[in-house]
Amino acid sequence: MPQLFWNPLSVNCLAIGLLSIVLSAFVFRRLYLGSEKQKAVRFVVLLWLCSTFILVLAICQFFSVTAKPDVGNYFLLFSSPVGFLSVASFVAFAFLWGRESSGFDWMFSVLILIFLGLFGFESWISVQRYKELQRGVVEFREVWADIPFSALLLLACIFLTTNLTRVISVQSNLRIGVASLRALKVLATPWRVIPVEQASVRAFFYVSVWPFGTGIAAVLRSYGYLSWAEVDTLSVWFLTFALAGLLVAYLNYVSETSSFSTKLIGMTFVVVLVVLSGISWLVGGIYVQTYSNPNDPTSQTSLHFERQENGAYRMRHAFPEFDANIGTRIRNHDRAVELPFSFPFFQDRFEKFYWHPSGMIGFHSIPRWRDVQFQYGPQPAIFVLAAELEATSHSGIYMRSTEDRVILTWHQFSPAMDLKQDVTFQVTLFRKGDIVFSYDIIPSAIAHDLYEANLGSMMRGIVPGFGEREVVEVDIGSNLPVLAAPGQGIIAPHRYEFLAYLNRVFAPVALYLIASTLLVFALFPRLLRTSITLPLGQLLRGVQSIMAGNLSTKISIVNRDEIGFLSDAFNEMAQSQRDLIRSLERKVAERTAEVAEYASENARLQERNRLSNELHDLVSQNLFSANLIADALPDLILQNSDQVGDALKDIQLFNKNALNEMREVLVDLRTERPEKKSFGSLLRLIIQDVTKQFSTEVNLMIESDTELPDEIDLVFSRIARESLVNASKHSNASAIQVYFDGVGSQALLRVKDNGKGFSPLGVAPRHMGLQIMNERIAAVGGSLDIKSTPTLGTVITAIWIADEN
């Protein structure tokens, strides 16, 4: 496990890691339990991948800012590929959000190909940087390499805006252009209350804006508009807010079955992490400003590195040896200095060296800040001050050389953190290999910075070449002199002393952050159980019981709070419902009695109408005929007395028929028919009876015969008799055709005559025969069709088809 130095950045990375762990675990649990709807699984899988990659990114970022640079730089190499995978997962999530699965999608396939290409590119960059790092050289990403990140995050915003437009267009039935304007208005007004599906897209849009800001910050840093410190701070906070927003958006809009307590715990967890992270930054700023390291270089001091015969070095304090004769100013721009002698340094000898304006010397090239922070750089080097210095009009690098020594002086430079101060110091290289650091003017305290290590004095000492380098880290204030082994460098790591100082402050903060997380998920649910979960559960069960119809349910009131008020309100509502139902039951009973009475009266009315129809069909025709003959009998007696006897016989016959038919009606009222016949047989009897009375020629055709249900049998027989009597008596028909076709569930009866016909619209109201036939057939679910034209005869068709329902 590498040595860790806790600081505000590492606390933020820890918060990001904890957020991603919670989100990833929560999403994975829901996928494992199958809690999501089938069509939403792919979105949740992408969300889980995004949160998991962010977790890996947080781990890489954490070690890059918390471990020593010789370890942290290796983790930093993986940050870009892993960060790209998290961005790609979220872009795919944004693209697919709200879309129905429709098989092959060429746009999504193109997007995947772009992801693969960019991931391969990021991986190639990381491999090349790793190779350079193996040589001790730290290479940063090129300026343009950050542009794809920003472009992808912008693409996520565009996808979410497009999906919001589509949702608004479908829900509000608007054209795309109008829906686009509505979508922009929704995004610009986060306080507006909108439908859930629109709100979910808007929430994830806001989530995507934060990492998009990170990409923009990275591009601005590449072009020099922002410093590393500003970008690191913005990136960490943007990622924190993005992940917190992602968790909140998921709890509120994606997981339809998330309980209230789960949402409350999740949001509490987010608030705790964000607040503690913010407090760590406030505390960090205060502690950084008050930091003072007694081991930092001070005025009128010297350090002596004595070279031993075996090539090892002994580091000790020395009497102040600053040489006021600083020589001449160096004006060469390549910063190379030729030595007047061959200078032995560790196991090598050098003829020249390269100076850096901030108090560093390299023997192969000019030292770079990015390199010296990683295992002190790739080359043999001397670090006299190693702090960022700014040149003024009086500043300069001066050199004086003699036969046995070379003196290099940094004269009147200013610390980058405080330009009002002056810094003057020098290094002396002796022919025999000794090295002396002398400090003439050094501010009382050189300020250190959390983000940019080179703003304060990073280190003092000497290191050999990078290959098999070993370094002894010493505390100048306590363990000098120190003798290193041959080939070992000696370094006073002031930067690590500063980080150790911050670690004493922020290690407890990190532990408190972890403990707070455990308390939120372990203790908070128990606290919620008593005050919220149990009362809400009782309220929910009571409401479900009431909705199921158990209105006698009474919800117990645990606490006199909002939930207790709701419980009391539901109890009152249930009591009101019970009272209302009792009142309704009483009124229903009263209305039922009234309806029963009305039904009885209606039944009597229907029976009267039926008897009226029966009497008309079976009796009134005979009585009517007998009445006509009786009316004509006086005239007949006077005019033709020979026909009186025949007329009296007809009257007798009609009266007898009426009496028989009345007897049949009474029999139908008391008993059912003694035997069941096919309708064809019954139809033949009816035709036989009618032809006896009227001597009309009737032609019968039966397509298929069947036994009809009793009520259908009765209705069809009445229609047949009525039609034949009307055709024979009133239409003066000489020929009648009767057609019947029936099976068990349907029947058709057609009566066609060649009589004088009539106009159906001109039938007098007192002639009730046609009306009664229509009422009879309609009562059994059949239909009656009457077609008649004066002088052209009449066709009456009755159709019945059984209702399968």
Automatic annotation (TrEMBL):
Catalytic activity: ATP + protein L-histidine = ADP + protein N-phospho-L-histidine
SUPFAM superfamilies reported in the protein's UniProt record: ATPase domain of HSP90 chaperone/DNA topoisomerase II/histidine kinase, HAMP domain-like
Gene Ontology MF annotations: ATP binding; phosphorelay sensor kinase activity; protein dimerization activity
Entry's Gene Ontology cellular component terms: membrane
Sequence ranges assigned to domain HAMP in this UniProt record: 530-582
Record localization: Membrane
Membrane-spanning intervals of the chain: 6-28, 40-64, 76-97, 104-127, 147-165, 203-223, 235-253, 265-288, 505-524
This protein's UniProt keywords: ATP-binding, Coiled coil, Kinase, Membrane, Nucleotide-binding, Phosphoprotein, Transferase, Transmembrane, Transmembrane helix, Two-component regulatory system
InterPro entries per record: HAMP_dom (IPR003660), HATPase_C_sf (IPR036890), HATPase_dom (IPR003594), Sensor_HK_TwoCompSys (IPR050482), Sig_transdc_His_kin_sub3_dim/P (IPR011712)
UniProt EC number: 2.7.13.3
Pfam family, one: HisKA_3
Coiled coil regions in record: 581-608
Protein name: histidine kinase
Organism in which the protein naturally occurs: Candidatus Rhodobacter oscarellae
